[in-house]
Amino acid sequence: MFRRKFIENSSILAGGLLLPQDLLATNPFGDGRRIAPENRIKIGVIGCGDRGKGLIHIASQLPEEFELVAIADVLDFRINETLKQPGAAGVKSYTNYRDLLNDQQISAVFISTPLNMHFPIASDALKAGKHVYLEKTMTYNIPEAFALVELVKKHPGQTLQVGHQYRYAPIYYKVKEMIDNGYLGKVTQIESRWDRNNNWRRPIANPSLERKVNWRMYKEYSGGLMAELLSHQIDFINWAFRTHPQEIMATGGIDTYKDGRETYDNVQVMFRYEDMIGNFGTTLGNERDGYLFKLKGTKGTISLLVNEAIFYPEKSHQKELETVDGVTGATKIVWDKNGGIPIKTELPAKDGTYYSLKDFHKSILEKKQPDSNVITGATTAFCVHLANKALYGQQIERWEPKYNLS
């Protein structure tokens, strides 16, 4: 009885949420007690662009978990902007991140710099005895990903978490639970887009700052749209299906903004998994689809947004989910106007970063591996870098056995 199993076992309509270690609790123990002051983590933030300021904003919503002590950035105006932000007023500031790492008050760092600096700063932070929250994509290239995996093994008492925060959104855990329990049947097609209609360019006061401010547009610093946007959806597929691509094909170009940039503004990548195809696309020239993520299986489709998801059963299973007569007292399934079932969670729909930082705090205190860790981060980094090789090299890239980490 697909309908009864759907309601009773999947708990899609309410409850049953499979989340990492009671993230809803007010403390890491999940018993309602408040977090002891000595378990408050003193942090430093390295990189104060939009993402760095965003992390500070989210951390300020978790005052029992984190206390911001210092910030660091190579650009003075970024430091000045950040010091005016709520939650950052009066903290220490540095232009050299090594000075921040030498601050003995700080036990953990958030790293939100250009991609090419992720590995050197994370390496220095681990060697300085700090826990690390490292923004995605984990590393700039494949050799750095291998090196960081080995370095983390040499520092077993320290936590390194990778900032693929979308997988921490409660709805994504619910969708993973549905996949694990077979409600989509055999999934063979993934459709993923993340589109915008803007040039991705930040204004600069001085032309000499062009590459430092607009680093995402230059290959020396950036993995482009693959690293900055599509890495989130790629990471979720790796995690939810415990998989990785076998072959990667790609095409793209600078099709809209002829402004001297080097990274493409229009990208389409196809991943061939063992028994599944993943289509990942993004453009900066049209925002109609925005964030689009569909998982298509023999029993149904899930359409995912950042904090929302709808399950569309195939016709062969839809009849079993129709409302039954009132005698049975069975729960009535609520359908949307397009014949879908909205997927519910118990937790509020917050930015995934909120839940990812709660897991970071808990991982530090419990000395456990976070859900988004150096192994999962490396696997996604391999995917991103192979995709970029296929994209810019105009060739098919293939997964190698050495990329299988454990």
From TrEMBL:
Domain Gfo/Idh/MocA-like oxidoreductase N-terminal: 41-164
Superkingdom field: Bacteria
InterPro entries, A to Z: Gfo/Idh/MocA-like_OxRdtase_N, Gfo/Idh/MocA_oxidrdct_glycsds, GFO_IDH_MocA-like_dom, NAD(P)-bd_dom_sf
Coiled-coil ranges per UniProt: none
Segments forming domain GFO/IDH/MocA-like oxidoreductase: 173-302
Pfam families: GFO_IDH_MocA, GFO_IDH_MocA_C3
Residue ranges crossing the lipid bilayer per the database entry: none
UniProt cross-references to Gene3D superfamilies, sorted A to Z: Dihydrodipicolinate Reductase, domain 2 (3.30.360.10), NAD(P)-binding Rossmann-like Domain (3.40.50.720)
Protein name: Gfo/Idh/MocA family oxidoreductase
